[in-house]
Specification:
The protein has helices spanning 2-40, 44-58, 63-83, 93-115, 120-152. It is mainly α. α2 (44-58) packs across α3 (63-83), α2 packs across α5 and α3 (63-83) packs antiparallel against α4 (93-115).
């Protein structure tokens, strides 16, 4: 009789140990995922700086010009962000035209700023590379959304 009780107690202890281990492993996995998300997320200012450095590298700028380009590009992005988010498709056309004009005005303003220290060809390459990078990011965002939907589905 005592051995039966002892066996039951031992089984209960082993079960409790496995439950604690499972909980710890689950918590550790969640912590790892949270750490990866924190590492992957950057502020938009940091992202703009990474983009600017990438563009500078693609168009072949030296260190001094890269520094100047990155600072100017970050200012450019801040002005674009100040316009606000994209308007919805069902927005008033006049509001959409107004937003488009503001974007064009900012792009033209920075075109002239870039021309102060870049050649025409470098400015053109920079704008083209920016467009390519933005398109690539948009595709990645869409792809990520599709994958998440497929996992849920």
């Amino acid at each position: 009789m005592k051995t039966l009780k002892a066996e039951s107690i031992i089984k209960a202890i082993i079960l409790a140990i496995f439950m604690v281990m499972g909980t710890c492993m689950s918590a550790n996995a969640q912590q790892t995922n949270n750490n990866q998300n924190v590492r992957q997320r950057m502020s938009r200012e940091q992202l703009a700086e990474v983009q600017a450095n990438h563009i500078a590298k693609v168009i072949g700028l030296d260190e001094a010009l890269t520094k100047k380009y990155v600072a100017t590009y970050c200012d450019y992005q801040k002005e674009l962000w100040n316009i606000g988010p994209r308007l919805k498709r069902n927005s008033n056309m006049e509001e959409r035209f107004d937003r488009s004009r503001k974007i064009i005005d900012i792009r033209e303003k920075y075109y002239h700023k870039y021309k102060e220290f870049l050649t025409d060809e470098q400015v053109q390459k920079a704008f083209n590379e920016e467009r390519r990078v933005m398109h690539h990011m948009k595709q990645n965002i869409k792809g990520g959304m599709m994958k998440r939907r497929a996992r849920r589905g």
